[in-house]
Amino acid sequence: MASHLFCGRVNLNILREAARKDLREFLDKCSGSKAIVWDEYLTGPFGLIAQYSLLKEHEVEKMFTLKGGRIPSAAVKNIVFFVRPRLELMDIIAENVASEDKLQPREFHILFVPRRSLLCEQRLKEKGVLNSFTNIDEYILDLIPYDGDLLSMESESSFRECNLENDQTSLYHAAKGLMTLQALYGTIPQIFGKGECARHVANMMLRMKREFAGSNTQILPVFDTLLLLDRNVDLLTPLATQLTYEGLIDEIFGITNGYVKLPPEKFAQKKQGEGGKDLPTEPKKLQLNSAEELYAEIRDKNFNAVGAALSKKAKIISAAFEERHNAKTVGEIKQFVSQLPHMQAARGSLANHTSIAELIKDITISEDFFDSLTVEQEFMTGVDTDKASTYIEDCIAQKDPLIKILRLVCMQSVCNNGLKQKVLDYYKKEILQTYGYKHILTLKNLEKVGLLKPQSTMRNNYPTIRKTLKLWMEDANEQNPNDISYVYSGYAPLSVRLTQVLARPGWRSIEEVLKMLPGPHFEERQQVPTGLHKKRQPGENRTTLVFFLGGVTYAEIAALRFLSHMEDSGTEYIIATTKLINGTSWVKSLMDNPEENLP
Amino acid sequence: LYVKASYKEQRLEARIALLQSAVDEYYKAKNEFSAKTTEDEMRLLRFQRKLEEEKGELLVGFSLHDTMTTLLSVGLHKHAEQLYKDFRVPDKRFWWLKLKSLAEKEDWEELEKF
Asked: With an 8 Å Cβ cutoff, is A165 touching chain B?
């Protein structure tokens, strides 16, 4: 059930097991039958750690979602709240507890994820319910294993908090998560970083390390290098439309916690006799990870290469089914039958992905999609970035989704190192008149994090950066890529390019460019106990953990995987992040809509 | 600058008053653009309220763009034109808007006119 975690270079299942052990210990603390009341946001991430069956083994009988009023009645001894440390949730809990039946005494427990907070406990005290709790505990869940090479904190608003609200809690969690990782996988000897947030995290890690001095873990280091990258350094990449298969699924349908919800029409089971009278109305939910052989193969491909891969696979499968005609002896037939389940699973996943690919194709061949992609690519190559784009004007006039407009405008601003004051004001006025004046707050936010800005007298650095780092490759090969730029059909993500250069030939060669990017860059070393220095076999690859502070896109992940698989790269990458993002979810996290808060 | 956060929470007349204090703050902060925009917003709100009283169309809270679309779709062309001039909407966008809303209504006669 967690087989996809084994297949990577580093066995992330160790981390998952550790997380499960903590959970079991807590559950056993509350003896007797219990019901869990969930903060709804947590159910997704928890699903990646423990299935219902594990909870059941520990006498969890009922599960509810946290909401006001009374908890639905259940014949259990314990009520356990699983919540994020947020004040508004404390109010709900207090209400729950206060309206509890006095005749039927039950024990209450709270498990804070990922940290307990004094502020929240204070709030419970104010509400007079703090003493009702038998256990108040924290469940440290910083980095959640997503896939064989991917960890995420699923901390939604981390970029916003760090860059807009000056709240660095999520960075503290990141540092803590890295410490947990080092406890399990050994000290990471080399740390590189770029950007303000990266610096902060590194400082916190080094300080925590000093505090724990003496209790050095005797584990052979698994990771050779840690690279901390602040999203701030590369604002451009997430704004661009991702063009890998997985990236497009995320752009179009949205992937949450490794699951995607798809419109049901395409997946209606064609059963005989029913005549399609009851089409499923529930969206189809599909889990996506590398445990699925086919998906692992095509997820990181450019979408234009997916069709070919699917048809090749279809041929292989039907050829395998044909084999049964050649099976003569009983032994051969037996062997064939033993392969059947595997083949049927393969056929099922092929059917699913063909349907998804069709859905995506409907969108990618549309004129709209093509037009905005063309404009994006013009911006990235530096065409006409200094005046108002007629395409954006037209989109506003037709009242296309606001996020699409914001993505494009921000992109132009980033590629041009700010827009001329006149152009910027013009865009702002157009947006406010069309979508409503309330969005002035959103525009303000975008300016504050640097996505939108007026041009300063400084000259535009972007072309220099683009040329030095070869961010634009004219002849990106989508079918058989030879460079990471294939993930955006031409644009090579800046963040991944930095990673690539770090491995070879090293950052010293691009000192000039690094200075142009925001925030400091640095290098630290951590002492590894003698005797634990790894003796590298010739031909053995280095392992680098890349931590994206403020989010990472699927296309960037694809690009890093591509680097890992390149024959002469000599480095394999494991990716960690605060949140898996795409341009839409990212811009959304920066928006402010005051009307949403109205009662 | 924080006043602007609070004004959304209030309804009715209090809104315009709060907007005014936001404008004052913006001028103090020398944020010309935001001040002008917020003034525009107040102007739009007043216009919408007046029309609501006169014509009984629900308008308050709509964006300028949506207001014009609504006006056109119920045949209040004069009022839409007035907004177009008052707020100096770029020609191109107004034509787009007019074209779209008239076509939706299948008001071909009015379309013929320009």
From this structure: no
